[in-house]
């Protein structure tokens, strides 16, 4: 008898629960949000933002699923291909987002984004505009072309940090260290993207913004053409300068076999005075507990047309066209751009904001402030090359080629010729 | 009645394993096979196009395919020879039961229980000229020129280093199997030969090795299959670099399908790999079968 | 027998044995010594023993890497997968060894063919199946994948059951024992050693697996030891001692299982490979 009563009670409770659920379901919409922000501090900030949004909007429940970085690309591609993407998707701004836009899988958000653009820093539109339409809102801003140095080691060798303002000065300083028996530049190109970034920044210094943007975008946008070919003097000069660093012996001995983390470790433990990585290096320095760290802009060549220009990178929050509720999703996107959330992001994340809020009262790491000043004083900003060039040409001719140039398998001119051939073939195959 | 009940029973026994294996292993493999005849961007199924044999034709013109195939064959050949020769040597030594043989065989087996990822990370660290063990050791020994050598970052040494680590990892397993094979050989044979005055070398050459044939076949087939499918170790240690120098087929496939966004082309490479492994295994088994009949 | 060999051969043999043993033990000693040193010590004197061994590094690595969570995930996934595999594959192996039916040999070959498929090939289609089933980012995605790792276990159980005389089951049938009871009451108890071997071997394989957790278990709370350890390597760039400590923490379980069950693993693998 008791068993029966218990069972009946359980059944009733179950029914009641189901009704309650049904009632709640009728009023709220649940939005799935996917991102690759799976590690603190980035994940913490986004989770906080989601919580804040859910609390302020009782009719919407955003559910965040964080993916491990390397797996995210596979997961998202497969979900899109299978027709089951999330309601809101974080993607890398630029070419990565454009491939989804190209195949019609993202909502055109032009009307929604236009008012938000008013508070955006200038020059960042290339990261989310494709074919004249806008496909998402930016979250966070990273600066790529930064050189970190160890001020204590520079002082010991009598090198003035101001001499790092040009590439030539940087090379002279490197020679000073080499002469003193210290290999100057911590670098590990095992995973290829580090060499890609080096080449990226050297090239960016050699070209003007217009030239730089066009030479990349010509593979993504049918309407863009480039006066400069990869086989021309300027891009080849960038390869030559890159190769010269290795030939001079400035890179740490494991430069082809170490990964980026190992190289960073060499710099943070005071074994090499120079290391180049993006603004995320500020957070890495904190994590490593390194104290003797200072930064400056990645040195452009002395004859650079725009020596203070910046290379940037950002994440884009997009709405896949299969979303459950586009209006609810837009409300979340707008919330992400609010001052409240951006302040949270900057203060906890060692990162900058793509929006023009007054940051003077925000709590920021001094080094991050310095990056922010570099950004304020920059002539202009461009995305990373890998964000504005089609992966079909980028992977082989920058990622793989940069290693080949260092090993001598490709001469700088060969690298340029191959790259141009790929671009020509790609445009021809698409009838552009 | 019972007869029919019994015939049904084996179906129930087989059903769970068959279902999981078919749904989660064979069906994906068949889908992969079909997608090797297509071209698409990996993002939108709307972009999928049936291209027939185009991917396979393209493979034959792709110098990086031949490069990966060459590396793969070289890898398998070197690693197989090394494992068989070293494995047999160590098995013969251990079979003679020197003092401490069981401690040695336990130690030799340790690498096989570690994951390739851990082993890869460990050796990458040790071989690095900046943070490693090998560089400082060489400079302490008075060869500072070699101390800065990038073992994994140089065209000449990257693949050989991976071969070495692979042999290190797999040798214990081969020793174990070969030792077990040696222990099944009846002692009488050897004793009889010894009484007849045969030398140790002649006993090994004319009695032990022929009797070991079946075990050797198993070891050869297992090592060959595993070595062809090599992936983790390369990805962790060199990522196929520098500039394709240590790229094997599975890594080449991964980079085409996932990094360059050509899933159709990638699966075509994978299918070639499958066919090669299948052929090599069948040939090896056929050869050993014929040898057995002849003997 | 060893003593009867010439002295030179014996010396050479010992040299070879010691060389291989040292090459295996040395990296472990290096890892332990490195973990116990300070970062400054590591770069200045890579060979020396730690001046003041810092055992706290393991606790730091454990806490920062959230190894409690990682271990619970890994052990849970491994235990469930191994139990399932033993259940399904012992049944299938028994059926293939003791029952006569049409297509038996073909079915056996079908089960073996999976060994030759490079797992990277089926990555994308498998992911699609799991996504369709809504299982991505759940433990089930990896567990179901491991349930498909049947070839070796079926191969092994079939060989083992083939060694059990059929008369045993026939006698029970005459007594009127049901097929189910013959399998569970007579055959499975006899197959305990085989189950132990398969269990241990698969424990090591599944615990060490990296690729499937990498693509299916993205949520940080679901990560396995191998996955978490990789992420740890990336986020502690400059702290060599912590990185190595995490590496040691990740190798511990398979190593302990191996040392505890050494005999069973060795004998099991030998049988499995030799009964071909």
From TrEMBL, chain A:
Gene3D superfamilies: Periplasmic binding protein-like II (3.40.190.10). Its main location: periplasm. It is found in: Periplasm. It comes from the Bacteria. It holds the Pfam family SBP_bac_8. Residues 1-26 form the signal peptide. GO terms for cellular component: periplasmic space. InterPro entries: Bact_solute-bd_prot1, SBP. Keywords: Periplasm, Signal. Belongs to the bacterial solute-binding protein 1 family. This is ABC transporter substrate-binding protein. The lineage of its organism: Bacteria, Pseudomonadati, Pseudomonadota, Alphaproteobacteria, Hyphomicrobiales.
């Amino acid at each position: 008898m008791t068993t029966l009563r218990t069972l009946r009670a359980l059944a009733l409770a179950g029914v009641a629960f189901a009704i309650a659920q049904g009632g709640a379901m009728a009023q709220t919409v649940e939005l799935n949000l996917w991102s690759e922000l799976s590690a603190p501090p980035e994940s913490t900030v986004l989770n906080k933002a989601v919580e804040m949004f859910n609390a302020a909007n009782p009719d919407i429940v955003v559910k965040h699923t964080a993916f491990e970085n390397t797996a995210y690309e596979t997961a998202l591609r497969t979900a899109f291909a299978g027709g089951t993407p999330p309601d809101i998707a974080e993607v890398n701004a630029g070419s990565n987002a454009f491939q989804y836009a190209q195949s019609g899988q993202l909502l055109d958000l032009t009307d929604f984004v236009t008012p938000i653009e008013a508070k955006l820093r200038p020059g960042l539109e290339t990261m989310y505009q494709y074919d004249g339409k806008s496909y998402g809102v930016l979250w966070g801003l990273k600066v790529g072309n930064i050189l970190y140095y160890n001020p204590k080691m520079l002082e010991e060798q009598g090198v003035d940090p101001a001499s790092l303002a040009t590439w030539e000065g940087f090379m002279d300083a490197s020679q000073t260290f080499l002469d003193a028996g210290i290999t100057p530049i911590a670098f590990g190109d095992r995973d290829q993207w580090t060499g890609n970034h080096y080449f990226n920044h050297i090239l960016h210094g050699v070209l003007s913004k217009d030239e730089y943007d066009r030479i990349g975008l010509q593979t993504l946008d049918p309407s863009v053409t480039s006066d400069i070919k990869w086989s021309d003097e300027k891009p080849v000069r960038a390869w030559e300068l890159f190769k010269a660093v290795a030939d001079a012996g400035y890179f740490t001995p494991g430069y082809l076999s170490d990964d980026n983390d190992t190289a960073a470790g060499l710099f943070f433990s005071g074994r090499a005075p120079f290391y180049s990585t993006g603004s995320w290096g500020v957070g890495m320095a904190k994590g490593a507990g390194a104290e003797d760290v200072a930064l400056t802009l990645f040195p452009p060549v002395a004859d650079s047309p725009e020596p203070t220009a910046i290379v940037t990178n950002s994440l884009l929050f997009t709405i896949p066209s299969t979303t459950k509720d586009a209006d609810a999703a837009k409300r979340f996107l707008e919330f992400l751009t609010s001052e409240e959330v951006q302040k949270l992001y900057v203060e906890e994340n060692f990162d900058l904001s793509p929006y023009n809020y007054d940051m003077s009262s925000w709590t920021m790491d001094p080094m991050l402030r310095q990056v922010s000043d570099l950004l304020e004083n920059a002539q202009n900003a461009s995305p990373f090359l890998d964000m504005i060039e089609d992966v079909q040409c980028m992977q082989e001719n920058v990622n793989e080629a940069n290693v080949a140039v260092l090993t001598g398998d490709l001469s700088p001119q060969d690298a340029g010729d191959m790259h141009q051939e790929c671009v020509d073939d790609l445009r021809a195959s698409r009838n552009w | 009645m019972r007869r029919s009940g019994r015939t049904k029973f084996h179906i129930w026994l087989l059903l769970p394993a068959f279902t999981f294996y078919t749904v989660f292993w064979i069906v994906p493999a068949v889908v992969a096979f079909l997608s090797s005849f297509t071209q698409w961007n990996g993002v939108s199924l709307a972009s999928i196009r049936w291209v027939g044999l185009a991917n396979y034709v393209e493979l034959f013109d792709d110098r990086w395919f031949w490069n990966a195939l060459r590396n793969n064959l070289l890898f398998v050949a070197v690693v197989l020879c090394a494992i068989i020769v070293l494995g047999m040597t160590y098995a013969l030594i251990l079979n003679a039961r020197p003092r401490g043989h069981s401690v040695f065989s336990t130690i030799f087996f340790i690498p096989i229980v570690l994951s390739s990822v851990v082993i890869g990370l460990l050796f990458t660290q040790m071989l690095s000229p900046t943070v490693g063990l090998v560089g400082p050791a060489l400079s302490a020994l008075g060869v500072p020129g070699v101390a800065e050598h990038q073992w994994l970052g140089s065209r000449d040494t990257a693949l050989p280093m991976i071969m070495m680590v692979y042999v290190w990892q797999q040798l214990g397993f081969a020793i174990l199997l070969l030792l077990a094979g040696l222990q099944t050989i009846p002692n009488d044979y050897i004793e009889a030969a010894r009484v007849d005055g045969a030398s140790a070398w002649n006993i090994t050459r004319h009695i032990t090795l022929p009797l070991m044939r079946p075990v050797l076949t198993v070891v050869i087939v297992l090592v060959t299959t595993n070595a062809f499918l090599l992936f983790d170790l390369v990805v962790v240690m060199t990522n196929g670099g520098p500039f394709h120098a240590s790229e094997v087929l599975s890594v080449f496939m991964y980079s085409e399908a996932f990094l360059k966004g050509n899933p159709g082309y990638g699966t075509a490479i994978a299918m070639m790999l499958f066919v090669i492994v299948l052929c090599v295994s069948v040939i090896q088994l056929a050869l050993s079968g014929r040898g057995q009949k002849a003997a | 027998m060893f003593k009867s060999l010439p002295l030179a051969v014996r010396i050479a043999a010992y040299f070879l044995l010691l060389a291989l043993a040292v090459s295996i033990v040395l990296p472990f000693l290096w890892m332990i010594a490195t973990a116990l040193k300070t970062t400054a010590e590591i770069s200045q004197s890579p060979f020396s023993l730690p001046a003041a061994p810092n055992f706290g590094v393991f606790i730091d690595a454990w806490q920062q890497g959230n190894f409690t969570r990682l271990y619970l995930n890994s052990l849970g996934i491994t235990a469930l997968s191994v139990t399932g595999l033993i259940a399904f594959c012992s049944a299938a192996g028994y059926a293939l060894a003791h029952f006569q039916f049409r297509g038996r040999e073909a079915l056996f070959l079908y089960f073996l063919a999976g060994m030759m498929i490079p797992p990277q090939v089926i990555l994308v289609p498998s992911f699609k199946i799991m996504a369709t089933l809504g299982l991505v980012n759940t433990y089930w995605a990896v567990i179901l994948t491991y349930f498909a790792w049947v070839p070796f276990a079926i191969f092994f159980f079939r060989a083992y059951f083939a060694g059990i005389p059929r008369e045993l089951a026939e006698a029970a049938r005459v007594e009127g024992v049901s097929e189910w009871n013959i399998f569970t009451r007579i055959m499975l108890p006899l197959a305990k050693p085989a189950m132990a071997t398969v269990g241990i071997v698969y424990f090591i394989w599944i615990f060490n697996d990296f690729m499937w957790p990498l693509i299916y278990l993205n949520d940080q709370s679901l990560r396995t030891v191998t996955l978490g350890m990789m992420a740890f390597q990336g986020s502690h760039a400059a702290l060599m001692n912590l990185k190595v400590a995490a590496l040691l923490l990740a190798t511990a379980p398979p190593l302990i299982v191996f040392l505890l069950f050494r005999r069973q693993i060795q004998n099991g693998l030998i049988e499995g490979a030799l009964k071909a």
